[in-house]
Amino acid sequence: MNLQRILCPVDFSRASEAAADYAAAIAQPLGATVGLVHAVYAEPAGSYGQNLDLDALYTAMRGEALSRMQRLQVRLGPSGVPTETILREGPVAQELQAAIGAWPADLVVMATHGRRGVRRWVLGSAALDLLQGLRVPLLTLGQAQEQQARSRLAHVVAAVDFPLAPQASVLEAAARFATLRGGRLTVLHVMHELGVGARRPYEEVLVDALAQRLAAALPDEVQGRVEVSVEPGRLGERVLDWAARENVDLLVLGARPREPQARLLAGATVERLLCAASCPVLTVPCGTAGASL
Description:
The protein is of the alpha/beta class and about 290 residues long. It is built from 10 helices and 12 strands. The protein has 2 domains: about 5-145, Rossmann fold (3-Layer(aba) Sandwich); about 155-285, Rossmann fold (3-Layer(aba) Sandwich). It is about 40% helix and about 20% strand. Strands 3-2-1-4-5-12-9-6-7-8 form a 10-stranded mixed beta sheet, with helices on both faces. The chain has a two-stranded antiparallel sheet with strand order 10-11.
């Protein structure tokens, strides 16, 4: 997994500055470059659009944005991580998608406004657009200032479903991040869609059987270096509860691109997991076969 160019959208809020700090922290052991991208966009409504000099407005906005981005570069200077600034003009979601390909980026690190959920990103309503057309891994911080310390990556968890083959990229990404700082790697599967009558008497047997099946199906490159956990329960709730209980630093999920609902874990939405997770979440594009996350 190549991680040499990390794109970090910023809007100069404290949350986006914390996301930039996080991006620099993971770029450091990788020897990666961080690109700070900001989209300038103004569409005055009503009479303002007729009475404002939009050329002058954009000139002023560009100047202010460049000044703030330079200050952010100075803030990241002590990390020793190379940084670049990318200033674009236009609707935020559209310009972020364009920047991912034009820069180009191997990974996007982005803060969200936790109180309003994923529909209200630091940079606007860009979340679902990015996830539906997911081309590169997207790492989101729901409470960026609190989660910044999670860059220690002491415990990385890949949440997977069966079959595993379409989710090879999820396991690869989780292993890559776990090795950055010598952290633990756990593969988690939530046992779901079992009838109550079938589950209650034999739950322990089923958990053990699935854990053995999961361990046997893991790629050779992670065999012997990973813990396996199978948990019964409701998908989204169990993943969130387990991640909080086990003090997880990064939760890695797979998503199929270009799905209107952009659903994960066969029913738990991206919005809920990204907003409610107690740790940063890395969403990785994966295959479309089977029940991939």
